[in-house]
């Protein structure tokens, strides 16, 4: 899911910025890296920004349950995810719906960073 990835601790949350092409292998590597960084910093709130060049295939989107399970993403993770590309947004929305339907992870999908960050900061303040 990512050809480039930056993870920056921002105090109460980790800020993830990714770009590149989508694949099962890239998504698994991305989420394992995010989960490892969360455990390392003992911080399970994530603000993610993605700008992908192509949408995830339907089968890879469907398999995000397995990706999250293998990566160790659990209910303690709160994820505000931003898809900046209108051409991939609907596919990312499908991934979020698949995960929500299977009760995996807690998060929300956004199209802009400010709204996502505000939502995440509200969740942090409410803990």
Share in β-strands: 25-35%
Mean of residue pLDDT?
Answer: 89
Oligomer state of the chains in this structure: single chain
- Tally of strands: 5
- N-to-C SSE series? EEHEHHEHEH
- Structural class by helix and strand composition: alpha/beta
Helicity range of the residues? 40-55%
Distance between the termini: 30 Å
- CATH fold-level assignment: Transcription Regulator spoIIAA
Ranges where pLDDT stays below 50 over 5 or more residues in a row are none
Task: Report the CATH C-level class.
Answer: Alpha Beta
Short characterization:
The chain has helices spanning 24-41, 58-62, 64-71, 86-101, 113-125, and strands at 4-9, 14-20, 45-52, 78-83, 106-110.
Overview of this protein structure:
- The protein has helices spanning 24-41, 58-62, 64-71, 86-101, 113-125, and strands at residues 4-9, 14-20, 45-52, 78-83, 106-110.
- With 127 residues, it is α/β, with parallel strands linked by helices.
- The protein has one domain: 2-Layer Sandwich (Transcription Regulator spoIIAA).
- Strands 1-2-3-4-5 form a five-stranded mixed beta sheet, with helices on both faces.
- β1 (4-9) and β2 form a beta hairpin.
- It is globular.
- The model has no long low-confidence stretch (mean pLDDT 89).
Task: Considering the chains and any ligands shown, give keywords for the structure.
127 residues; alpha/beta; Transcription Regulator spoIIAA; five-stranded mixed sheet; 5 strands; 47% helix; 25% strand; globular
Topology:
Blueprint lengths: L3 E6 L4 E7 L3 H18 L3 E8 L5 H5 L1 H8 L6 E6 L2 H16 L4 E5 L2 H13 L2
Parallel strand pairs: 2-3, 3-4, 4-5
Antiparallel strand pairs: 1-2
Helix pairs in contact: 1-3
